[in-house]
């Protein structure tokens, strides 16, 4: 797609200026991250005395403290459970609904589609008061299940937007001939549509994984036991507890930052597809 | 599509396909939103206010000390925050996107780097910059000194003048990848013929931006500003992580999100929480976000 501005005659000086700005912006982005990771391998003394230098030795003391003296692996496991469960529900619920919206004509079809899309514009946190009341009533307050449910609701609109866009491009001939052969509607969905959804499933999963993994608001409001905390909430609690121990704090921040960054660096093209779904097509 | 019309039997399965998504989305997202608004007409202690009080919560918010002061302060701060993020993030992102689409080498690399912070939790970003700007460690001040800008040194997060702009810049650092992705996709989508035509006309870069790029990516600009607006008017984490839920210093960084949180769930911080009042704040946030979305949709779809 990047052929647009090819052949444009840009003089050497302008070209230098462009790269200068682009690289400068890279440094602005990278430097704080670099500082964070470097400092996590340093002692407090080193952090204050030689803040910009690479660590003298690869000092793992901060990480040892973090992983041995806190419940960190538990927090990590909680985050994984919540994210995976929510994404599984999002995938199933929104692919089924998208199939109905995209492949059948029925009254209110358009209305239901826009009803779901409205969720993309409304911050779900504005309903937090009633969400909390409801989970207390359901006896799910301070329970990972409450997070799983709320993130599922949060992810369904984007899931439906991405899946319907994808399914609209699947031709009907295959399903039609299967229908003539006497295949049931759910059978068509399972045997013909789902196997074609591969790329869309990855887009929906990756697009929802980042905000769900990183969410701080709902754990803050809905969780209060230490052993049920997810990574962002645990990061805040540990930060408050160790505010003066810089080395340990940088290890805490790095541990929270690195998994989603690695995931993102490898899967970002799927995230970008999710982000621009619908928006670019108009 | 003709095929489906021939299916005459009751198509209950359509409803079954829709059911799981409709159920989860309606029960846990849409209904709580309206039920929370209903709570704004109630008062009482605890998480479920049970005394109907009409518009009393709103009267309190708009007329009584200190609620009136906090509300107008949060509103003004949120507007300022949105305007500053728009400049630092969206306008900068727009120009970076233009540079990125000038047939430069390594576009993928640049885009990935710019996009990398987006993977981080706001809470991590906020804490990281809180440490960087902290005068005790003083890393940012050291950088300023090294490039001869000593005179600028100040308690960045403790000075009411600089605190909110700093939060806006940190937010822009975090999220600049989003407008860059949208704008590069939009500029890449401009057809070759239009570019050819402009080249024949011999327009310069400013003319190209004004008469070609800007009008054609206007709907995308609209989307980016809507996303920013909705995000900023429900933002909470950046304030919480950098300036606590009080919006320090002296409420200089207090925006709707922190005001809502403090009012609704504040009991832990020596302030008695008032869920009904919090619900009223959430309702005001909802109305403002709705108005903002409509305005930006109108602006971006208007053709001159």
Give structural notes.
- The complex is a heterodimer of chains A (282) and B (304).
- Chain A has two domains: 12-61, no CATH class; 70-241, Orthogonal Bundle (MetI-like fold).
- Chain A has helices at residues 12-39, 44-49, 61-69, 72-103, 109-117, 128-137, 144-167, 173-180, 185-196, 198-214, 217-222, 231-241, 246-276.
- In chain A, 72% of the residues lie in helices and 0% in strands.
- Chain A is built from 13 helices and no strands.
- The two termini of chain A are 18 Å apart.
- Chain B is an all-alpha fold.
- In chain B, 44% of the residues are buried.
- Chain B has helices at residues 2-5, 12-39, 56-63, 67-100, 107-115, 122-133, 139-146, 160-175, 177-188, 192-201, 205-216, 218-232, 237-243, 256-265, 275-301, and strands spanning 42-43, 51-52.
- In chain B, strand 1 and strand 2 (51-52) form a beta hairpin.
- In chain B, helix 3 (56-63) packs across helix 15 (275-301), helix 4 packs across helix 9 and helix 4 runs antiparallel to helix 12.
- Chain B has a domain at 72-245 and 291-301: MetI-like fold (Orthogonal Bundle).
- Chain B is globular, with a radius of gyration of 24 Å.
- Chains A and B meet through helix 1, helix 4, helix 6, helix 7 and helix 9 of A and helix 1, helix 2, helix 4, helix 5 and helix 6 of B.
In short:
The complex is a heterodimer of chains A (282) and B (304). Chain A has 282 residues and is mainly alpha-helical.
């Amino acid at each position: 797609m990047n052929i647009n501005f090819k052949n444009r005659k840009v003089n050497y000086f302008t070209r230098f200026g462009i790269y200068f700005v682009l690289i400068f912006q890279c440094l602005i982005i990278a430097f704080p991250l670099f500082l964070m990771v470097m400092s996590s391998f340093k002692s407090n003394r080193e952090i204050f005395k030689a803040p910009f230098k690479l660590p003298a030795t690869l000092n793992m003391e901060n990480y040892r403290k973090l992983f041995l003296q806190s419940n960190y692996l538990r927090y990590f496991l909680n985050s994984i459970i919540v994210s995976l469960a929510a994404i599984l529900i999002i995938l199933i619920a929104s692919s089924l609904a998208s199939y109905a919206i995209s492949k059948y004509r029925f009254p209110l079809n358009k209305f239901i589609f826009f009803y779901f899309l409205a969720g993309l514009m409304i911050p779900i946190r504005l309903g937090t008061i009633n969400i909390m009341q409801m989970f207390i009533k359901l006896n799910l307050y301070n329970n990972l299940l409450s997070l799983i449910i709320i993130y599922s609701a949060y992810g369904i609109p984007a899931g439906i937007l991405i899946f319907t866009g994808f399914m609209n491009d699947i031709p009907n001939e295959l399903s039609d001939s299967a229908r003539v052969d006497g295949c049931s509607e759910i059978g068509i969905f399972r045997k013909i549509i789902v196997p074609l959804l591969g790329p869309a499933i990855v887009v929906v999963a990756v697009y929802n994984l980042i905000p769900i993994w990183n969410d701080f608001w709902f754990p803050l409001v809905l969780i209060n036991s230490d052993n049920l905390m997810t990574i962002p909430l645990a990061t805040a609690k540990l930060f408050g507890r160790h505010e003066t121990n810089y080395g340990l704090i940088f290890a805490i921040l790095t541990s929270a930052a690195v998994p989603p960054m690695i995931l993102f660096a490898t899967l970002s093209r799927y995230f970008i597809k999710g982000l621009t779904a619908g928006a670019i097509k108009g | 599509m003709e095929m489906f019309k021939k299916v005459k039997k009751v198509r209950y399965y359509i409803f079954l396909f829709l059911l799981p998504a409709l159920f989860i989305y309606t029960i846990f997202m849409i209904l709580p939103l309206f039920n929370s608004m209903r709570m704004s007409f109630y008062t009482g202690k605890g998480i479920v206010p049970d005394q109907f009080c009409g518009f009393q919560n709103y009267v309190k918010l708009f007329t009584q000390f200190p609620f009136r002061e906090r509300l107008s302060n949060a509103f003004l701060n949120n507007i300022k925050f949105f305007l500053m993020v728009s400049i630092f993030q969206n306008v900068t992102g727009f120009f970076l996107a233009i540079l990125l689409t000038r047939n430069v080498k390594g576009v993928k690399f640049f885009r990935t780097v710019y996009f990398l912070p987006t993977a981080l939790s706001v809470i991590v970003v906020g804490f990281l910059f809180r440490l960087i700007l902290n005068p005790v460690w003083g890393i940012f001040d050291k950088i300023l000194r090294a490039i001869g800008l000593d005179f600028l040194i100040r308690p960045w997060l403790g000075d009411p003048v600089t605190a909110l702009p700093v939060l806006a810049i940190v937010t822009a650092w975090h999220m600049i990848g989003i407008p860059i992705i949208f704008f590069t996709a939009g500029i890449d989508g401009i057809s070759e013929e239009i570019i050819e035509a402009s080249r024949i006309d011999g327009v310069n870069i400013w003319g190209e931006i004004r008469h070609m790029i800007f009008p054609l990516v206007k709907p995308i600009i609209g989307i980016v500003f809507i996303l920013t607006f909705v995000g900023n008017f429900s933002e909470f984490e950046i304030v919480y992580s950098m300036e606590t839920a009080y919006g320090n210093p002296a409420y200089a960084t207090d925006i709707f999100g922190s005001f809502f949180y403090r009012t609704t769930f504040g009991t832990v911080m020596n302030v008695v929480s008032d869920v009904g009042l919090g619900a009223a704040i959430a309702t005001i946030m909802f109305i403002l976000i709705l108005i903002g979305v409509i305005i930006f949709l109108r602006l971006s779809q208007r053709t001159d």
